[in-house]
Amino acid sequence: MGIERHLNDTVHVTNLEWLVNWARKSSMWPLGFGLACCALEMIATFVSRYDLARFGMEVARPSPRHADLMIVSGTASKKMIPAVRRIYEQMTEPKWVIAMGACACTGGIYKNYAVVQGIDRHLPVDVYIPGCPPRPEALLDGILQLHAKVMKEQSIHNPRIGKIKVVER
Amino acid sequence: MPEEATAQSGYHSEIMELNLGPHHPSTHGVFRAIVELDGEIVVNVVPHLGYLHRGYEKTCENKHYHQVIPLAERCDYMGASSNSLVFCLTMEKILDVKVPERAQVIRVIMAELSRIFSHLFWLGTHGHDVGAMTPLFYMLREREEIMNLFELTAGGRLMPNYLRIGGLIRDLEEGFVERLRDFTNHFDQRVDEYETLLTKNVIYIDRTKGIGILSLEDAIALGVSGPMIRASGLRWDIRKTEPYCGYENYDFDIPVETGCDVYSRYLVRVAEMRQSNRILKQALDRLPEGEIRARKAGVIFPPQEEIYTKMESLIHHFMLVVEGLRPPIGDFYQCIESPRGELGCYIVSDGGPRPYRLKWRAPAFVNLESLAKMAKGNFFADLIAILSSVDIVLAEVDR
Amino acid sequence: MNQEQIQEQIASRFGAGAVQAAVMFRDQLTVQVPADQILDICRFLKEDPELSFDFLSFVGGVDRHPQTPRFEVVYQLSSLKQQHRFRIKVVIEEPEKGLAAVDSVTAIWPTADWHERETAEMFGITFKNHPDPRKLLLPDNWKIHPLRKDFPLYGTEEDTPDLPA
Predict the structure, then answer these.
(1) Could you give the ipTM of this predicted complex?
(2) In this complex, do B77 and A40 lie within 8 Å of one another by their Cβ atoms?
């Protein structure tokens, strides 16, 4: 049944939105935003034992303009927030944020005057990965959940850019 | 020189201030510096710290003594067991508790594994900063083997949280000793392989020899310790001069170089990895049987089996967890040789269950003070190499 | 040299009043010296050939609120040549208006620079003649001294805001 069978499985028939989502999730370039200890586990996920390259994500760009995914790994202190926000704003659409580790999710074991109690006070977080630090398998699981989320997005009908005002002449 | 150029050619030149960080691929974390450049030559480096200030010392004043251990481990996340070691040693001196022999030997194993762990990562990222990307992947492979060993102790890959005041939390798993022996047997060859990548590499030597000179007088005046001062010629290692944990019983050398530059620091750290392996082999040979935690009622946690069988131990455990231990009033400073230098813990106790003041003498914080002196007069690209040779961990610098 | 001998050297050079208190705890001696003599005593400790304390491990503060005098500044010294360690401290009072002040030892040990900057911002102590008295770890627009005992651990919304500057 289906056109694909008749064409000897050389053609894949789908809708455009699925295709765009599939392309986005298959080569999502992370911005290595390693702040503290979780950065070490993030780096461990990139190398050969846990191998993030099989998801197309080994290209970790230091520049936010080139990156799609911001993995906030580590404690965000209040002094660092202006830099975090500026880097998030410099990332081009579409962009996603993973809060990796207890400190990025909720402040972690540092409940005091200097630490932001969760990076979601300043950025829209898509996936939270708890752990102190989370194992590389946990980070991979979080990334796969994010891929599943991206596949369900309405990327064509509802663009993630805010409404653009047209100014009357 | 810029003034002469201006006078001759009529150009106007001034010092350019460049902002480096806090988000930068080569700064090993959230480190920010304002670099004043005259063309490509660095005139001054002014570090701006605090981007990872997590209020560690204030938080510790509100925790019981045992609750400080996981916080302490996250201070220097590269060699986490050194931090809990210095804290536990300080508390054991204050409480006047003698740690059993088996626990001391295992602590030495954890400390040396942490040293190798930290130096491996340093080597990988230092090579990456200088332009050699290959060592990083090999070092991280090696680190995975060490993380397997850490996992066998208490479950955590990065922060095993294995040490307690008075000893260790539990005994070694079965299989740990065999795996560690395998590791020590092949590690020396691995270090030989890694040395073939960088030690005689012409590009690496060009980039690091003569760069970032820190003379011995400057190093002592600036409070620099650890591999940096050993690369400047001073034979000083706290494991030899003020031994703790039974280090006087181990036979190891202190690698010293006199080059005072980035290349010497590389040589010192690679040699230290070999010496740590030597200590590990000796520790495995002398591992005695015995208890892994001292016994002192009301102060040290009783053994796990006794809590479930004896009423007295259960009550002691309960009081210790709920009320905390009460050390005598006084202050004490204990330091150890961490992978970065002299790591010190100064505790002021007022008799209550919480530290009245916990001051963490972080070696990376003090070593970073020497950056400005080392970087003056070098090219900007060399600044990155010098910064990576200081081996900073921002969580320790900012606490 | 052991700890008591070092204390005797200080007392013999600067008079008995220079050693205001000496507490020995677990084989470590902490000697309290007057705040106005700290520079001279530190210079003596560094330059005397038998003592030669050329390495300053740290300069830290302790807040003894609500006791008066309120602050202690602790100097942990060590000698690389003679292989001994020593600890001295000064006790300073916070005046009615303004901040407690003590001389900076940066001229004697340049490493004290960053230690004193951190102690100054954490406790609100002024180090006189410090070459660069700026904040080190806290954001520039915060006007608080976190390690004081009367500062709450969680901070306050006005003093330690979560919003970008």
Answers:
(1) 0.92
(2) yes
